[in-house]
Design brief:
The protein has two helices and no strands. With 57 residues, it is mostly helical.
Length: 57
């Protein structure tokens, strides 16, 4: 029983880490874009990506 709980805790910790890491990666990508693109251009790219995500099945 304790082994199953430990496995569940490890899976949850891994999922949390992956989520936080993914958000950090996105933030870094946005910061990189802002170093050579206007804020307005970055916003347009993000809107296009958002629309694509919303249309995914």
């Amino acid at each position: 029983m304790a082994e199953k709980r430990l496995e569940q805790m490890a899976e949850e910790a891994t999922a949390d880490w992956l989520c936080r890491s993914s958000i950090t990666y996105l933030e870094c990508a946005i910061s990189l874009m802002l170093t050579h693109m206007s804020k307005e251009a970055v916003i347009e790219v993000m809107r296009a990506e958002t629309k694509m995500l919303e249309e995914m099945d």
